[in-house]
Amino acid sequence: MSQVEVFNGNLAAAHAARLSRPEVIAAYPITPQTPVVEYLTQFHADGLLDCQMTEAESEHGAMSILSGASLTGVRCYTATSSQGLALMYEPYFRASTLRLPIVMNIVNREMISPQTVWGGPQDSLTLRDAGWIQLYVEDNQEILDTTIQAFKIAEHPEVLLPVNVCYDGFYLSHMSERVELPTLAEVDGFLPPYSSRHIILDPDHPMAVDPLTNGRLLMGYRRKHMEAQAAALRVIEQVDSEYSDRFGRSWGGLVGEYCAQDADYLMISLGSVCGALRECVDEFRSRGLRVGLLKIRSLRPFPRERVIRALDGKKGFGVIDRNVSFGTNTGILYQEIRAALYSASKRYPAAAFIGGLGGEDLTLEIVERAIDATMASVDAGEVAEAATWLIRPEKRGNS
Fold it and tell me: What number does CATH give the domain 255-390?
């Protein structure tokens, strides 16, 4: 029977990993991910987690260890942030192209420089094309539920790809919320033990892993990798539905929609800012303005059809990005939405916004300002080619 707890996001992620019964965990601490490793180490010391815990010398080492472990057919987990993710880039890319179903929480933090340790999804979004599935969540309950789901998605025979579950550093990692914690037996009923059939290092059945590959073979590997990403679109939805049937909570699969069906104006974003957007949607609805929210949960694979369907019948949309896409004058999510709509029959008026960088608050006032600007741009039939920067006015002290 599930019990209600008060967890910060890192503790929710650690419990999700514990409940999923990983056989090997390797990690290296980095702000704001560090408590995840500490919680897991304590679970292991207390006998609540039966696995091989490895203290790596770096994030590069952690992912390398897990790649080797996954090749032997065991379930693997880790977590990292920002510069740690950058340091593990080589084995990070290798894990996906070797089709290793590793699950990793990324506690999103801005990249340096200038020096910052505060939250922002620039770290994981920058690596969106490294072959991993990337899921983004809004609150601590969604961290726990989606991390458990991630193992089932990764290990699905039509997918067999590593999965990131990404959540905002500090806003979620260090803030506490009500979380329903399922029992180990309940999770066992949802997530069966992992059994690798596609790749395994076994002296009794020798096989070549990662040999020098010519162009034709590499083309075949990449094509199958792309097909697995496409299959994941269906599997993500399917796993979320199965989770809902068992635990009573659905997060929408690829996207989350709030007051979206009858909306005239759709606001689109990902991560914890969707909580503020939800509050603002209620406020605008109370004024008789039909505003809705589309929360992107899966950035890779990108839910093009779900986005097109959600925008059908809308006057237009606005996108709030907490990141930048260098060279485009907009954020990454706005570019993804525009690309998805290329095949749609209608060219929607749209507004683009960048804000909340380096942990800057996207307050209700700022989000309301973005919604007002979106409605004005959409009503004028404008399509943004550059983002509006959402910056709080500086408070002037007494002179």
Answer: 3.40.50.920
